[in-house]
């Protein structure tokens, strides 16, 4: 196309502007804004945060949602299955207040007799359904028995949403009470990491020299003492319970964070901005708190989030082997321990606390993964 034939009215002169070359197409964002934006894009992490928020709220308000206390004992209502009013007629739900199982025998009559014996021979409240009649020789007969526990015990208008344990204590109340205790242990471990671990590692890394050598030798001595040994010593001096676990976490729980912070401080303390601050006469404490710690805040937050599920599992493990909380106190560990003893007969006693502790640990790990990606500049787009 001949350029000379283009109508002049279609051409307009371009006015030069001095700041055109420096114009920014998008508004600039800080590192924290970029991290927040990246984290909010992680849908799985956001869902985990919502789940954790719901669990935390339920740990405070769940025990007060019915009239039963977490230690109200009544053996006459022991090991009652879960029952919810609007699921009374739904046998598939597991919340209809019945116990069921399959029983075998030489013939149908013998299998039925075994089922009656299992449920205290309360024949009027047991429904029998023949699964396999057998042939009377090699194959045994099998029947399925459904025991209406609430009717048998005269508790037709009573509802235990998650059932009761062997002493008749309401599992719903104890579950959320135990969740509260486990979350307390978790956030206590996080607080110890943030207060003791960050301070110790920051001082050791920035001071260097002889001070750093002495502080690291102390850490090496503490690392050589396993947590379980510390717990046993606390039990000898005190008694099993929250106080023993708290002291054990205070003694050794912050070492990993201290080492991590020390390593990061050693990498940053010779940077130009730190040297400039020293030259201007800034105090060492201010350099650590105003310059160094904020620059490693992402590493600290991520490590803290990974500490929380570890602390929950630590408490559950101690309670499971009898070194943590002592009944009638409730935690997820003690509930799992009780449920494990009755696993084959009453699996619901183990099911619900196991689900809650699994969800909590998975959710915290997913949130920690999301924070790790959010604080990684390579993940920002």
Can you tag this structure with a few keywords?
flat, 2 domains, mainly alpha, three-stranded antiparallel β-sheet, MetI-like fold
Cα(first) to Cα(last) distance is 42 Å
Portion of residues in beta strands equals 5-15%
The CATH class of the largest domain turns out to be Mainly Alpha
Q: What is the fold-level CATH name, i.e. the topology of the largest domain?
A: MetI-like fold
Count of folded domains: 2
Query: What is the ordering of alpha helices and beta strands?
Result: HHEHEEHHHHHHHHHHH
CATH architecture identity of the largest domain? Orthogonal Bundle
- Uncertain ranges: none
Secondary structure layout plus pairing:
Elements: H1 31-41, H2 43-61, E1 98-105, H3 108-118, E2 126-132, E3 141-148, H4 149-152, H5 171-207, H6 209-223, H7 227-237, H8 242-252, H9 255-268, H10 272-279, H11 284-295, H12 297-320, H13 332-341, H14 348-374
What does this structure look like?
It is flat, with a radius of gyration of 31 Å. The protein is 56% helix and 6% strand. It is mainly alpha-helical and 381 residues long. Helix 5 packs across helix 12, helix 5 crosses helix 13 and helix 10 runs antiparallel to helix 11. It has 2 domains: 69 residues; 209 residues, MetI-like (MetI-like fold). The chain has a 3-stranded antiparallel beta sheet with strand order 1-3-2. The protein contains 14 helices and 3 strands.
């Amino acid at each position: 196309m001949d350029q000379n034939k283009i109508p002049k009215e279609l051409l307009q002169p371009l006015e030069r502007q001095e700041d055109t070359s420096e114009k920014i197409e998008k508004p600039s964002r800080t590192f924290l804004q970029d991290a927040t934006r990246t984290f909010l894009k992680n849908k799985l992490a956001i869902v985990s945060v919502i789940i954790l928020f719901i669990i935390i709220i339920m740990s405070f308000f769940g025990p007060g949602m019915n009239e039963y206390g977490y230690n109200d004992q009544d053996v006459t209502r022991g090991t009652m299955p879960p029952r919810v009013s609007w699921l009374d007629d739904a046998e598939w739900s597991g919340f209809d207040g019945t116990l069921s199982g399959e029983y075998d025998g030489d013939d149908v009559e013998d299998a039925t007799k075994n089922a009656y014996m299992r449920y205290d021979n309360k024949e009027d409240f047991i429904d029998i359904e023949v699964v396999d009649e057998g042939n009377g020789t090699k194959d045994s007969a099998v029947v399925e028995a459904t025991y209406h526990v609430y009717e048998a015990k005269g508790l037709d208008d009573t509802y235990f949403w998650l059932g009761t344990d062997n002493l008749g204590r309401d599992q719903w109340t104890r579950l959320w009470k135990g969740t509260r205790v486990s979350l307390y242990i978790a956030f206590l471990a996080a607080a110890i990491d943030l207060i003791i671990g960050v301070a110790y590692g920051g001082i050791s890394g920035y001071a260097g020299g002889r001070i750093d050598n002495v502080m690291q030798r102390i850490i090496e001595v503490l690392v050589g003492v396993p947590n379980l040994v510390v717990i046993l010593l606390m039990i000898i001096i005190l008694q099993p319970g929250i106080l023993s676990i708290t002291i054990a976490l205070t003694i050794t729980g912050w070492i990993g964070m201290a080492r991590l912070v020390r390593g990061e401080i050693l990498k940053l303390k010779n940077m130009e901005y730190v040297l400039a601050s020293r030259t201007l006469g800034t105090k060492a404490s201010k350099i650590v708190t105003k310059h160094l710690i904020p620059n490693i805040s992402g590493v600290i937050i991520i490590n803290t989030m990974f500490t929380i599920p570890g602390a929950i599992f630590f408490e559950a493990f101690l309670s499971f082997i009898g070194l943590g909380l002592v009944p009638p106190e409730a935690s997820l560990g003690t509930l799992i321990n009780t449920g494990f003893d009755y696993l084959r007969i009453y699996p619901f006693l183990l099911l619900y606390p196991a689900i809650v502790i699994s969800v909590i640990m998975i959710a915290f790990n997913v949130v920690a993964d999301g924070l790790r990606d959010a604080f990684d500049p390579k993940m920002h787009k």
